[in-house]
Design brief:
The structure holds 2 protein chains of 2 kinds.
Chain A: H1 2-8, H2 19-45, H3 50-54, E1 63-65, E2 67-68, E3 77-82, E4 91-98, E5 101-106, E6 109-117, E7 121-123, E8 125-127, H4 132-139, H5 143-174, H6 180-189, H7 195-208, H8 215-219, H9 226-237, H10 241-249, H11 254-265, H12 267-283, H13 286-291, H14 300-307, H15 315-348
Antiparallel strand pairs in A: 1-8, 2-3, 3-4, 3-7, 4-5, 5-6
Chain B: E1 4-13, E2 16-26, E3 31-35, H1 42-50, E4 57-62, E5 65-66, E6 77-80, H2 92-102, H3 107-120, H4 136-148, E7 154-158, H5 166-183, E8 186-191, H6 194-200, E9 203-208, E10 211-216, H7 218-223, H8 228-233, E11 240-246, E12 253-256, E13 261-263, E14 276-281, E15 286-288, E16 294-303, E17 307-313, E18 319-325, E19 335-340, E20 345-349
Parallel strand pairs in B: 3-8, 3-9, 6-7, 7-8
Antiparallel strand pairs in B: 1-2, 1-4, 4-5, 9-10, 11-12, 11-14, 12-13, 14-20, 15-19, 16-17, 16-19, 17-18
Classes of the chains: A alpha+beta, B alpha+beta.
Chain lengths: 350, 360
Amino acid sequence: MSRVWEFLTATRGNGRLDWTDWITYGYLALGVFLMFFPVIWLLLSSFKTEADLQRFPPTFLPYQQETLMVDGYEEPLPLFLMTEGEFEGRVLAQVRRVGLQAQMVDPANPEERLRVTIDQREPVEQVSLAWENYAGLFERFNFLQFFWNSTFITVTATLLMLLVNSMAAFALSKYEFRGRTVVLLLVIGTLMIPQTVVLVPLFLIVTELGMFNSLWGVIIPGAATPTGVFLLRQYMITIPDEILDAARMDKASEWKIFWRIIVPLSAPAIAVLAILAIMWRWNDFLWPLIVLTQTENFTLQLALNSFQGELQTDWSSLLAMTVLTLLPIAMVFMFLQKYIATGIASTGGK
Amino acid sequence: MASIELKSLRKAYGAAEVIKGIDLSIEHGEFCVFVGPSGCGKSTLLRMISGLESVTSGDIEIGGEVVNKIPAADRGLAMVFQSYALYPHMTVRQNLSFGLENIQTPRAEIESKLNDVAGMLQIDMLLDRRPKDLSGGQRQRVAIGRAVVREPKVFLFDEPLSNLDAELRVDMRGEISALHKRLGNTMIYVTHDQVEAMTMADKIAVLRLGELEQFGRPLDLFNDPHNLFVAGFIGSPKMNFMTGVVHSADRSLLTLDTGEEVSLPVTGFAHRAGEKVTLGVRPNSLLPDPNGSIHIQVRAVEQLGTDSYLYGQLADGTRLTVHNPGQTQVQAGENVALSFAPDAVHLFDTDTTLTLREAP
């Protein structure tokens, strides 16, 4: 911890703040603000009630008006602080409001009704988290179904992609065969074709194969990616051929060489690709939107989209679900970030 | 029996022929060294025997059976690689047992074989480490252990000592020789270092540009090199060569290109009067002699205490090395006269580079 602090407060030298330190920290602070402010804003807003979200000017923290159970009333009544008029300084509970007039009661004396104009008061508010936004996701929407769909697609597609890509990369990096360069160029060539161009033909194929409106229709077209093949191939080239020869002399089959030698030695590159694949699949929107049309097959991204109606948007649910959608990917990053750094570093050299 | 027979073996990559028809026969239990300068095809030849490289034409026989079509794994060979090629993600124990697991050896048997080999090579305390935590010499032992544990018919070594420092190399040289004596297997060892070849081999095959220059026992190669290349390659420091023409009337006289006349042995060599020949004399056969007929100017002197070397050149620029037992008073820049005993010379035909020695 002390080392973290030491790192965060490092200066250019002599312990004092040089002008370059000011610029550096200013720049870094700006970066932190730009990156984290939207996320924090999202997180705090997801705990606001629908009314609080509509308020102008907006507040940073989620506020809710305080309420109180008053004798003789079944519902809790909202509290107001009187700012002027004859009851100035007292906290009253509102019974009902008609136009600019409101009927209030003093919680200490619930029998007597008091009439005030609404510009004489302001609501008593406190910071409060609207957990019902989250609870509603599970009660009103089939959040777990969406979550399961997204998870199933992400996990299956990632595993399938790692398997297919690493086998292709192994063949392209370690076997000499006629047309190897052509195959590799074709693979890399597909990088130049934007996905939107092949969207329609891909859709037709998926429909022909009966995978329309099925999770497999999302999983299988993304199983082989040129980026993945290329990334893994570049890494596998650095594995010395002599190790494979040694394994062959050790009577290992080619399949065994792949599983016992190539895969463990490519682990850093495979980890990088796994992280990328998880992010791609989890955040994928366009392709699932085309293939999946029934609500029970929706992924989280599609569900989020469906909150945004033409006339009305359910902001509180939308924000809460956005937070829940972000969490798993943030977790993956937190646990695997050291592999990203080492993996990318080691795919570059040696 | 694991004798190895190569019959007019060829290897070509497209139009480039790297092995140009080699015939070789290695007896069971022999330690055979393939030696030659880099690019001579010795490693390719070894990889062809191992099965890792395909054969373009010709036959490889192991124990009397043609193995051209048999994959590397089924030839009953084990190989030690130049870079050791240990599996970096496995411990030493896993490295050693990988091959045995692949042939479904029972666990207990693997364990006992592994312990035998580890004890023999003194790597038993390293079994749970990974290759990156080992020193060069230890990795070398593990690589040898991985070959030994599978009890192959033939061991193949591909320049196994070239990554070690000089001192360790001498040690490992002795250990590999000792291993050969203990196991009694046929071994083929590839190196570019003729000292390794001389000290370890039962038989040496000298290769150059994909062709077998000479095959025989180390001292036979040293004493009776078939051509200029073998003469120059075997022996350290290198043999000295001087070109000249045999006297037109007297076969016992040779006129060097510098005009100096030296005497030649009349018997034992098939040189003819007036023929252009190359005279080869080993550095230890050239003796400083005030009456000597060869004159060099000394360019450098190396004093090693027990030996000293003079590096000089003839009047026509031909460089000569003289080995002098003990210490010498000669300084760089001096002129020295040399002579040699007539029976210590080698004679080669300058045009064909072949030896002129008559078969006994």
